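Backbone-to-sequence.
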């Protein structure tokens, strides 16, 4: 579904991501982990075509279903993001239109695939919300983002992604702004979404608990490079690279201190 080959990304003259290689299969969840500044969010933005004016791909390929996105024009990128590639942001409430009701935002999203009535849009949206364990979908559809909690907005963002039936979902720290209880709800919602859609999920996170619950494969980034790659069990339980071992020891130390 997605294959990254020797990818390099820079902001201005400073290269942030260096010669990254990995792949994501349909129905697979891949988590990219690492410290802040390791380049993981830049990697995700490059794949989504959201680097902005300062960011640019300096080398390599981003192959999505056989198409090199690194050479796609902005119009083609937008059409893919609207239909086959969905993005879920860290602060979902801020990524939605604050002056538009949730129901209208679903209708706008679905209209990218063709004309749709508000009634049919609401029906599809409510169905997705129920599958993501959201209660009172009718009330949510009438609400503005500011009227909903952070956890509800995050699951609404997942529903907005899910309703388009994408092949690939890109998630940038989708649980980091939430408390532990709500994080668990969002993880459960994402697991349900994966069962229903069979979409591939590429998630950037620093939360090892989320990785342990969701990941099939894990990539560890340090200073813009993927220094370790493997199954979740291999990376979490039997790390090879010194940096990964350090990350795991920090997690274990924090968990011990919390106890």
């Amino acid at each position: 579904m997605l294959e990254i080959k020797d990818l390099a990304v820079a902001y201005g003259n400073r290269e942030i991501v260096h010669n990254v290689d990995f792949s994501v299969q349909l129905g697979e969840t891949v988590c990219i982990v690492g410290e802040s500044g390791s380049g993981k969010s830049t990697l995700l933005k490059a794949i989504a075509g959201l680097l902005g004016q300062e960011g640019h791909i300096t080398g390599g390929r981003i192959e999505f279903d056989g198409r090199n996105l690194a050479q796609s024009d902005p119009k083609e990128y937008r059409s893919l993001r609207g239909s086959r590639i969905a993005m879920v942001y860290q602060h979902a409430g801020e990524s939605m239109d604050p002056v538009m009701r949730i129901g209208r935002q679903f209708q706008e999203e679905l209209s990218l695939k063709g004309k749709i009535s508000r009634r049919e849009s609401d029906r599809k949206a409510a169905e997705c919300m129920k599958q993501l364990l959201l209660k009172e979908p009718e009330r949510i559809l009438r609400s503005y983002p500011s009227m909903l909690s952070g956890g509800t907005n995050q699951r609404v963002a997942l529903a907005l992604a899910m309703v388009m039936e994408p092949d690939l979902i890109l998630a940038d720290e989708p649980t980091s702004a939430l408390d532990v209880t709500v994080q668990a709800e969002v993880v459960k919602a994402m697991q349900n979404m994966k069962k229903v859609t069979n979409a591939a999920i590429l998630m950037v996170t620093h939360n090892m608990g989320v990785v342990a619950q969701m990941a099939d494969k894990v990539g560890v980034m340090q200073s813009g490079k993927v220094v370790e790659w493997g199954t979740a069990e291999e990376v979490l339980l039997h790390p090879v690279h010194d940096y990964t071992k350090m990350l795991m020891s920090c997690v274990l130390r924090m968990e011990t201190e919390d106890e």
